[in-house]
Amino acid sequence: MKIIVNGEPASTDAATLAELLAELELADAIVATAVNGDMVRAARRTATPIADGDRVEILAPMQGG
Amino acid sequence: MDAMTGLTTGIGTDKVTFYDTEISSRLLLGTAQYPSPAILAEAIRASGAEIVTVSLRRESGAAKAGQSFWQLIRDLGVKVLPNTAGCKTVKEAVTTAEMARELFGTPWVKLEVIGEDDTLQPDVFGLVEAARILSRDGFQVFPYTTEDLVVAEKLLSAGCEVLMPWGAPIGSGRGLNNPYGLRSMRAHFPGVPLVVDAGVGVPSHAAAAMELGYDAVLLNTAVAKAGDPVRMARAFAAAIAAGREAVLADPMEVRDMAAPSTPVMGRAFVGS
């Protein structure tokens, strides 16, 4: 299915957000996630399904002012 | 105390409190735009800052830039103040703050809701609304605001216990654009920790903010974009300590006319 990851079109077979992170080699990374504009806590990722057209944000610590 | 300058006199005992957390250094430092991670780390150490601002950005599986940055910050042992930089709506800012709380494990958030691209001026209406939502949700909000007293009052009502008015637009290095407004704000809210955030370019700007009675200064570009960021970090630390010492020392009154500083008594050639 087609989804949007961090603003870019992507194809995935992942059924859940946790599977998507594993697919992207971010399973162990320190990241925060949101689906369709709403935050999904780390503990909820395995129970959060990914559907066609979903917009997924994967954010990491970054330099800031 | 440093015998040469005396600048550290007040530092050990003179602390500022942000939401029940006592802080000795009155310099809050941003972590963006440094020439390298090593220089960033050295600048933080040289500044003596105990609080650094951080942000959240999209992570790519290949680069994983965020992971090494976070490791560097943790190794320094400083407190982090995550920002919501770049957010333009209440929804974006609130969601970003929630994600930052999980990622960084702190209820602190430097709340930015940007209303205008050229000046990066805060959208104060969105700011107040987001501050209310986040405060109710247990966040400890450090709002990036203007020197507007009415907005400040509403932010306090929304639950903020710190206010961070701008000196000048973010990254402009223009210093304190409205010293009168900042002085009024200080006078109106004597018990509220006030931090000048943004627009500071050189150490004298930061010293001036401290001399106005501000509790701390938050800056980033002025250090990161200096030719020698580590040295500039040290310069800002000294200026902020000097400004704070000056306030505690109770400066003299300004006079319109000259008054001789050298004693007149016993002066030669008088009456001859």
From TrEMBL, chain A:
SUPFAM superfamilies associated with the record: MoaD/ThiS (SSF54285)
Superkingdom to which the source organism belongs: Bacteria
InterPro entries: Beta-grasp_dom_sf (IPR012675), Mopterin_synth/thiamin_S_b (IPR016155), Thi_S (IPR010035), ThiS/MoaD-like (IPR003749)
Pfam families reported in the protein's UniProt record: ThiS (PF02597)
PANTHER family per record: SULFUR CARRIER PROTEIN THIS
NCBIfam families: thiS
Protein name: Sulfur carrier protein
TrEMBL record, chain B:
GO molecular function list: thiazole synthase activity
Catalytic activity: [ThiS sulfur-carrier protein]-C-terminal-Gly-aminoethanethioate + 2-iminoacetate + 1-deoxy-D-xylulose 5-phosphate = [ThiS sulfur-carrier protein]-C-terminal Gly-Gly + 2-[(2R,5Z)-2-carboxy-4-methylthiazol-5(2H)-ylidene]ethyl phosphate + 2 H2O + H(+)
Residues at the catalytic site: K110 (schiff-base intermediate with dxp)
Localization per record: Cytoplasm
Known EC number: 2.8.1.10
Keywords: Cytoplasm, Schiff base, Thiamine biosynthesis, Transferase
This protein's pathway: Cofactor biosynthesis; thiamine diphosphate biosynthesis
Pfam families: ThiG (PF05690)
Protein's UniProt keywords contain Ribosomal protein: no
Binding, 1-deoxy-D-xylulose 5-phosphate: G171, A198, G199, N220, T221
Record keyword Magnesium present: no
Matching PANTHER family: THIAZOLE SYNTHASE (PTHR34266)
Family: Belongs to the ThiG family.
Function: Catalyzes the rearrangement of 1-deoxy-D-xylulose 5-phosphate (DXP) to produce the thiazole phosphate moiety of thiamine. Sulfur is provided by the thiocarboxylate moiety of the carrier protein ThiS. In vitro, sulfur can be provided by H(2)S.
Quaternary assembly: Homotetramer. Forms heterodimers with either ThiH or ThiS.
Protein's recorded name: Thiazole synthase
Organism: Ancylobacter polymorphus
Organismal lineage: Bacteria, Pseudomonadati, Pseudomonadota, Alphaproteobacteria, Hyphomicrobiales
